[in-house]
Amino acid sequence: MSDIIQLLPDSVANQIAAGEVVQRPASAVKELLENALDAGADKIQLIVKDAGKALIQVIDNGCGMSVTDARMCFERHATSKVRKAEDLFAIRTMGFRGEAMASIAAIAQVEMKTKRYEDEVGTLVEIEGSVIVKQEPTAAPNGTSISVKNLFYNTPARRNFLKSNPTEMRYIIDEFQRVALAKPHIAFSLHHDGNEIYRLPAATIKQRVVHLFGNNYNERLIPVEEETTIINLKGYIGKPEFAKKTRGEQFFFVNDRFIKDNYLNHAVNKAYAELLPDDNFPLYVLFIDIDPAKIDVNVHPTKTEIKYLDEKSIYAIIHSAVKRSLGRFNISPTLDFNQETAFSNMITPKAHEDIVPPSIAFNPDFNPFGTPKTAAAPRVQSESSGYFKDSYKPKEVAQNWGSLYEIANYQQPEQTTIALDDEKEEEAPAVMNKQYMQIHNRYIVSQIKSGVMVIDQQAAHERILYERFLLHLEDRKGASQQSLFPQTVSLSPGDFELAKSLLDDIKSLGFDVREFGKNTLVIEGIPVDLGSTNINETQLFEHLIEGFKNSQQELKLTKRDALARSMARNSAIKAGTALSQQEMNTLIDELFACKTPNFSINGKPAIQTITLAELAQKFEK
């Protein structure tokens, strides 16, 4: 029997490695930008065409390479950062494995021009599918320019798995943001299809955050700084009121390397535990400086995961530092023994004013076991301020010790039968003369033949709007009401690319919106389904985009379904909203006209019934 184990050809081995390192255009962008940083550049340009599928070009003014280095950098495991195994635990550079250039060259057409400061001419290298096509001297500026063309041209199956251009461009912007945040003292620029997306000058950390995400972030940031013998921590966290439904704006950097760590992320979120609901995520950009000997960065092909020697101590330091910053800036309750603000605001008595102690009045004839001669009846307002002023009238007032309750004379509505689903029919209030009661401005209650029906008003309205918006997206006939004063909304480049890809569907919902300059849209109308209430168009649109991202991330929904869900959640009435009888009537009529009235859009019940038997059981009858 012949031998069956053979060594893989270099071309196949490189493509296998490329599958781990280069998963999409954004992966190549990350590797090229990190190489530019390691070259000592202080100015880096990223040029992208067709969302990186046609071209990814990175130009830097770093140290450049010699003729030999320009050829060697495309070999597997060729690196300038590691000489022996011990060097893996003293790494301060971004790259070190020597896999990136070989992997990119295996699945693309690569052209590199590079020149050292001390050389008179540079070097040109052209590679296609790991095969060197050309290497010759060339005129070039100091530094390196690498062009990656036709990514995955020789692996069409991999290319078919790429997403749409707006989606792939968002991934590229995410990687660009991470690298730019890690090195705020370096100038970056990003161009896509001839349009300038970013031009970032050298700046401080806070300025870099504002330049990347928008001027409105200037007021959202709280500084964090902590120096210990284990780690040094610095950066910024976001104020709780600006938290979002998605985790996108959360950045950890260890020795200026972006990392993903759920354990440390929990330390930050726990500090916000009493300030945010569970489904909201705060902004943070935190930098951890630690001795490289106490971490292992060689645990993941993309170098985004790290192991720590003492992760519990790091967790405790991050948690306490974030919580202290929240308290220091009066975001969370604190106790300051040096000065309590409640006492500082008290009015001090004037110098010539006499201080009179309070007097206590009592009735010496009071007998708690006797019956008072007169008992004042409770005061009944002539007109109730609630929505049920015509439904409740005082019938009888107890005279012994006064009454704490009014006994209501409730007129029972007529009953009719409404089909709640295909298998079961349930009693519901009649179409005419319905009487509903609102509890805590959250639930709508109605008496039915079998007992009581309770409706979650927010879940019901979300269901109504979701099915309505989904219909608009299908027939493209969402009506719009024009705004008296059009509003402009400025988005981050990533959100702007997303909004552009959704523009046709957003218009189908009833928005009248158009592009207006760099990363800016103009909203000239909103859907008529939102009613006549005062609506902040800008905030509504921002929440729509944010909710869409959250729905797609968590539930992997289709584009239209995610958009309809986001719009419904952001437009529905919220718990705590008082409703009139007419509003409750309309809400319930529209709910029972839905295809699935029993359930909210997240699959939880929107209607609950409590039978007379269940009530009797509660009272042990």
Note the main attributes of this structure.
3 domains, alpha+beta, formyl-coa transferase, domain 3, elongated, Heat Shock Protein 90, Ribosomal Protein S5, domain 2, 621 residues, eight-stranded mixed beta sheet, 22% strand
Structure at a glance:
The chain is α+β, with helices and mostly antiparallel strands and about 625 residues long.
Task: Give the terminus-to-terminus CA distance.
Answer: 84 Å
CATH architecture name of the largest domain: 2-Layer Sandwich
What is the number of independent domains? 3
Summed up, the helix count is 16
Rg, Å, rounded:
33 Å
Helix content: 25-40%
Helix-and-strand structural type:
alpha+beta
Describe this protein's structure.
- The chain has three domains: 10-202, Heat Shock Protein 90 (2-Layer Sandwich); 206-328, Ribosomal Protein S5, domain 2 (2-Layer Sandwich), CATH 3.30.230.10; 386-621, 2-Layer Sandwich (formyl-coa transferase, domain 3), CATH 3.30.1540.20.
- Helices cover 31% and strands 22% of the residues.
- It has helices at 10-21, 25-38, 67-72, 100-106, 156-160, 165-182, 205-213, 262-271, 311-328, 341-344, 457-475, 493-509, 537-555, 559-571, 581-592, 612-618, and strands at residues 43-49, 55-60, 109-115, 122-128, 131-138, 143-149, 187-192, 195-200, 221-227, 232-238, 250-254, 257-259, 284-289, 295-296, 307-308, 415-419, 425-429, 437-439, 443-448, 451-456, 480-490, 512-515, 520-527, 607-611.
- The chain has an eight-stranded mixed β-sheet with strand order 5-4-3-6-2-1-7-8. It has a five-stranded mixed β-sheet with strand order 9-10-13-11-12, sandwiched between helices.
- A hairpin with a 6-residue loop joins β3 and β4 (122-128).
- α2 (25-38) packs parallel to α6 (165-182) and α12 packs across α14.
- The radius of gyration is 33 Å and the shape is elongated.
